[in-house]
Hints:
Radius of gyration: 20 Å
Number of helices: 8
CATH class of the largest domain: Mainly Alpha
Amino acid sequence: xxxxxxxxxxxxxxxxxxxxxxxxxxxxxxxxxxxxxxxxxxxxxxxxxxxxxxxxxxxxxxxxxxxxxxxxxxxxxxxxxxxxxxxxxxxxxxxxxxxxxxxxxxxxxxxxxxxxxxxxxxxxxxxxxxxxxxxxxxxxxxxxxxxxxxxxxxxxxxxxxxxxxxxxxxxxxxxxxx
Length: 178
């Protein structure tokens, strides 16, 4: 997720490390805070892999500043990851949101729709949080208001996402044959 987000934000524009961190924090929020101890080693790995470069600019006051730029290889890696996200990128909500944040960079509506179809297929699979043997327990069966709330919220969120995915895939597919 971090690699994808870094490449995605640098696809938009070159950034200083602290600006990149601010963008990442806005995307992930409190769910997955990113420390300097995580971000800067990831930047160094991406730089070592040739996916980004660091350019030095004069500082506004005294010290020079380092700006991170995406390379052609980095752009290609971003697009490849967006075309064929890992299964965990499709099933994990936080990772899915990162994919979704940058999916517009795929030029092909067909490729975008293919990724959305994978998420649709995942959401359409029967799933539950709590089980009695092999049977998923429904929200209505819980006396515990917190577990019932968890299931009701998950159901409503999934319903809204399914509706959005279906309408977006239809729009990306364009009008059918006349």
